[in-house]
Amino acid sequence: MSVTIVGAGLGGLTLARVLHVHGIPVTVHEAEPSPAARTQGGMLDIHEYNGRLALEAAGLIDEFRGLVLEGREATRVLGWDGTVLLDEPDDGTGGRPEVQRGDLRRMLLDALPDGTVRWGHKVTDVRTVGESRHEVRFADGSTVVTSLLVGADGAWSRVRQLLSDATPEYVGTSYVETYLLDGDTRHPAVAKTVGGGALFALAPGKGIQAHRESGGTLHTYVALSKPQEWFAAIDFTDVDTTTARIVAEFDGWAPELTALITDADTTPVLRPINALPTGHQWDRVPGVTLLGDAAHLSRPNGEGANLAMYDGAELGKALAAHPGDAEAALAEYERALFPRSAEAAAEATRDFELCYDDNAPHSLLSLFTGQEEAR
Question: What does the record list as coiled-coil region(s) (predicted)?
Answer without folding.
Answer: none
